[in-house]
Design goal:
heterodimer; A: 179 residues; alpha/beta; Rossmann fold; 5-stranded parallel beta sheet; two-stranded antiparallel ribbon; elongated; B: 291 residues; alpha+beta; Heat Shock Protein 90; 16% strand
Chain lengths: 179, 291
C-alpha cells in the first residue's frame, strides 16, 4: 500500500487535498501538527511526504530535513504560497526536495506531481531490491566458485567431468577416489 | 523656538501647513505599512483560495457522479442497476463529504471576506472624525490584518476587560495597535506570546500590548518615539511607526508609555480618555510635540 503524508497547519487544505487524492488508491495520512507528523514517521513508511512551506513552530524545510533522516526513501515535496525562488532553492538544497507545488494549486498538477513522486519511489525501491538480489546472487556464485576451487586444489580433476560420444559420464579406472 | 520672531499673520498658515504635513506623513506611513502587509495578506488569502478552488473541482466530480445516478433512473431497467451505480460512485461517502466540502468552502470564502473588509477598514484614510467606537472591534480588525505576521511568531492572548465605547478616530487607533503588534512580532525571535489587555481606570481606557520578545535596550528606550529612529534592518522598518503612534495618541489627549526589560519583553500602555474634552482636536495642541 502506497502511503502519502500531508502536513499543513490548515486543516481545510488537508481535507481538500485528501479529497483530491482519494481516487488514486493511495492511503493518505494528514497532519496539521508537526509533532504528530513526526510521530507518524515512526509508525508508517511513506512513499511521498508533502508539507506546507510556512508553518508555526517549524517550517516545512526543517520538517523535511527531519523526515529525510527518519525516512530517506520517501520522496519529499513542498507546497508553498510564496513565489520566493530563493527560499525554494534553499529548500531544494537543504532537504533535497523533489519538486514544489504552489498555492493555490492546480489539481491536475498536484496529482501528476504526486504520481510521478510515487513512481520514482517505486522505481528506487525496485532498483534497491534488484540490487540486493543481484548482490545475494553474486555472493552465492562466489561461494560456489570458491568451493569448486578448494575441491580442485584437494583433488585435481574432480571438478571436471568427461563424457563419451553418447553423453555417458566416464570414470577413470585408475582414479583413486577416497570412499 | 522661532515663534516670537514670526510676524503674527504667518502663524496660522504655518500651523495649517504643519498640520497638513502631519497628515501626509501619517498617510504615507499608513500606506507603507499596508504595502508591507500586502505580501502577508496575499499569502493569507492564498490558503482559502487554494482549497476553495480545489473543492469546487471536486464538487464538479461529485455532481457528475450523482448525475450518473439520476440519469440512470430514466434509462436503467431495474432497481438493482441503480443500486450498482450507487455503490460504484461511493454514494455514502459523497453524501457525507459534500456537507464538509461545502462548509469548509464557505469558511474559506468568509475568511477572504474578513481579510478584505479588515483591509478596507484599515485603509479608511480620510476618516478624521472623533466618534464613539468599540476598541475591541478595532483590535479584532487589526488582528485580522496582521494575522499573517503574528501567527508564526506568537500566540495572541486577549485579556479584555469591560470597557465602554471610546470617543476616538478608530482607524488611527487601529494603526497604533498595528504598529505595536508588528513591533512585538519583530521583537520575538523564535515563538512567543503577545498579550492584549484592556481595562477601565478613572474614566480612562487602558490598552496594553505586551510581548515576550528581546526587549528594548536602555539607551534606546528614550529614543523610540523619535521620528526615523529604528533598530530594524534596512527595508524592515521606516522608523516612523512609534513616532506616529505617539502623535496619534497625543491627538486623542491620551498617553503612551513603555516598560521594557531586555531579554524579557516589552509592555506598551496606552491610556485614552473615554470622552474627548469639549473642544477636541485643535491644531495648536500639537505645538508641544511637533513631528
Amino acid at each position: 500500500m502506497i502511503r502519502i503524508q500531508l502536513v499543513d497547519d490548515e486543516p481545510n487544505i488537508l481535507n481538500s487535498l485528501r479529497r483530491l487524492l482519494r481516487r488514486d488508491g493511495w492511503q493518505v495520512d494528514t497532519f496539521s501538527d508537526v509533532e504528530e507528523a513526526l510521530d507518524g514517521l515512526l509508525q508508517h513508511d511513506y512513499a511521498v511526504i508533502v508539507t506546507d512551506y510556512k508553518m508555526p513552530m517549524a517550517d516545512g524545510v526543517t520538517y523535511l530535513k527531519f523526515a529525510k533522516q527518519k525516512q530517506p526513501d520517501a520522496i519529499r515535496l513542498v507546497l508553498t504560497g510564496h513565489g520566493n525562488n530563493e527560499a525554494m532553492a534553499k529548500a531544494i538544497h537543504q532537504a533535497e526536495v523533489y519538486r514544489y507545488l504552489t498555492k493555490p494549486w492546480d489539481d491536475h498538477e498536484v496529482i501528476a506531481t504526486i504520481s510521478s513522486a510515487v513512481e520514482l519511489y517505486q522505481l528506487q525501491k525496485d532498483n534497491r531490491k534488484l540490487r540486493n538480489e543481484n548482490q545475494a546472487l553474486r555472493a552465492m556464485v562466489k561461494a560456489r566458485d570458491e568451493e569448486l576451487l578448494r575441491l580442485e586444489a584437494d583433488i585435481p580433476g574432480i571438478t571436471r567431468i568427461r563424457r563419451d560420444a553418447d553423453g555417458s559420464v566416464l570414470l577413470d579406472d585408475d582414479a583413486s577416489y577416497p570412499g | 523656538m522661532t515663534e516670537p520672531t514670526l510676524p503674527a499673520q504667518e502663524q496660522p498658515s504655518l500651523d495649517a501647513r504643519l498640520e497638513q504635513a502631519n497628515r501626509q506623513l501619517l498617510q504615507s506611513e499608513k500606506l507603507a505599512a499596508i504595502g508591507q502587509l500586502a505580501a502577508g495578506v496575499a499569502h493569507e488569502i492564498n490558503n482559502p483560495v487554494g482549497y476553495v478552488y480545489s473543492n469546487l473541482q471536486t464538487l464538479e466530480n461529485y455532481l457528475n457522479d450523482l448525475f450518473r445516478l439520476t440519469d440512470a433512473i430514466g434509462t436503467s431497467g431495474s432497481l438493482e442497476d441503480l443500486r450498482q451505480i450507487r455503490d460504484n460512485i461511493d454514494y455514502n461517502y459523497l453524501r457525507e463529504d459534500l456537507r464538509d466540502l461545502l462548509a469548509e468552502s464557505r469558511e474559506g470564502i468568509e475568511r477572504v471576506k474578513t481579510i478584505i473588509s479588515a483591509m478596507k477598514d484599515f485603509s479608511h484614510i480620510e476618516e478624521e472624525e472623533f466618534r464613539l467606537a468599540d476598541l475591541h472591534r478595532g483590535i479584532e480588525t487589526t488582528l485580522n490584518v496582521v494575522n499573517n505576521e503574528l501567527k508564526y511568531k506568537a500566540e495572541v492572548v486577549r485579556e479584555f476587560g469591560d470597557v465602554p465605547q471610546v470617543e476616538c478616530i478608530l482607524s488611527q487607533i487601529n494603526q497604533v495597535v498595528m504598529n505595536l503588534l508588528i513591533n512585538a512580532a519583530h521583537a520575538i525571535e523564535e515563538f512567543g506570546r503577545i498579550t492584549l489587555r484592556t481595562r477601565l481606570a478613572d474614566e480612562q481606557v487602558i490598552l496594553e500590548v505586551e510581548d515576550t520578545g528581546r526587549g528594548i535596550e536602555q539607551e534606546h528606550l528614550n529614543r523610540i518615539f523619535e521620528p526615523f529612529f529604528t533598530t530594524k534592518g534596512i527595508g524592515k522598518g521606516t522608523g516612523l511607526g512609534l513616532s506616529l503612534s505617539f502623535n496619534i495618541i497625543k491627538k486623542h489627549n491620551g498617553e503612551i508609555e513603555v516598560h521594557s526589560q531586555p531579554g524579557k519583553g516589552t509592555l506598551f500602555r496606552i491610556s485614552l480618555p473615554v470622552t474627548q474634552p469639549s473642544e477636541p482636536l485643535v491644531p495648536a495642541q500639537d505645538k508641544e510635540k511637533p513631528i
